[in-house]
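Histidinol dehydrogenase: structure, please.
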Amino acid sequence: MKIIPLKETVSLKRAINQGTDKQRQTVAAILEDVKKKGDEALQKYTFMFDKVEITDTLVSPEEISEAYDAVSQDTLNIIREAINNIRDFHARQVQQSWMTTKEDGTILGQKVTSLDAVGVYVPGGRAAYPSSIIMNVVPAQVAGVKRIVMTSPPQKNNTLDNIVLVTAHELGVKEIHKVGGAQAIGALAYGTDSIQPVDKIVGPGNIYVALAKQLVFGVVAIDMIAGPSEIAVLADRTANSAYIAADLLSQAEHDPMATAILVTTDHSLAEKVAQEVSEQLATLPKKAIAEEAIQHYGAIYLAETMEQAVEAVNELAAEHLEIQTEDPWAILPSIRHAGAIFLGEHSSEPVGDYFAGPNHVLPTNGTARFSSPLTVEDFTKKSSIISYSKQAIQSQASKIATFARLEHLEAHARAVEKRLED
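Here you go.
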C-alpha cells in the first residue's frame, strides 16, 4: 500500500459505480417487460441470465426440508444466536405513537404505522449471504411488517443455497422466490401473477439490481443505493499493525472497487501495516480481488496530528470506521460522519457484519454525511394527528386566515373563517 502524506486538502480515494448508459437502458427494458408480461418475463430473463428454466418461482416445503438436512446443528445454532443478537438490538429502536394536549382542547400527535409489505433482495451467484437476510428481515419484523417477500437468483439446480433457505425459514419468511436480477426488482415493484407487489424493496445486489431499484423508486420505496464496501481505520502508534492489515483486507476481498484506507499519525505503523497487507494478501483465497482493490482504492495517509487525522476520516465519511488508538472513546465525540464506528483493537469490522447486533446495511460513497444504517424506522411511516376544538379554532382562525392570504390562497382563509360564522 502507498504511504501518502496527508495534506490539508486531500481527495480520499473511493470508487463510485453509477452504471453506464447501456446498463441503464438494459435495466429499463427489463423492468418494462416485467411490468407488461409478468411471470413470462421472469421466466425469460431467468433463463437468459441464470441459465435456469423456471415454471414456479416459489420455494417449496420440500426444498426447505432438504436444506435443513444439509446444514449442521452447529451452524444452525450460530445462525440462531446471531438472529437473537440482532433482534435484541433492533427491538430497542422501536418508536411509539404519541399525543399531546393543550388547555384549549387541541390534540396533536404522531401515529407510527408499519409498512404492509416489504421485499428483501438477497444476492446469489458465487456466494451465499445469510447475514444479508438477517439484517434486512429482522428490523422489518420488529417494526411489525406482516408480509415479507424474499427473492434471490436460483442456482443451476433450480433451488437456492441451503444456508439461505435455512436462514430465511428460521426467520419465519414464508414467501421465498427463486428469481434475481433486475427482473426480481420489477416483480416486487409492479407485481406478477405469482409475486404480489410490495411497498418497499431492501437488500444489496449488483449494478443491475442497484439501477433497477433506482428506476422503480417512487412506485415503491427503497432502502439505499449501496456502493462498493469501504473501511477506514484511524490509528496511532499503539495500534496493532497485523490487526489493521487484516481488517483492511476484510473489506478489500468484497469487490475490486472496495475502498480500504488507514489514517495514522505514526510513520512506523504505516510501514508495518503496508508490509502486513502484502504478507497477508499472499494467502488469501480471494487474493486477486483484494489485491486489485488495495492497488486502486487502498491507501495509507500519514497525518501530522490526530486532529488532522480525525478531520480526514470525517471527510471520508466511511461505511465502516475503526478507531484503534490508545483511548478510542476520547476520540468518539469528534467523529461526525461514519456508518458504523468500531472502538478498540478487538472490535474488528466483521463483528458488526455478522454477530454483534447493529445492522450491517450502511451508507456508502460518503452518504454517511447525511444518512444512517438500516433501522426499524425504515420499515415504518408516520402520520401527523391534528384535532382542534371549537375554542382553539375560534382563537386562531384569524391568524391562520391572515397567513393564508400572505400566500394569496383565499379559499384557505375562507375555510377557517367559515368556522367563525357559527
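Notes: The first helix runs from residue 21 to 37.
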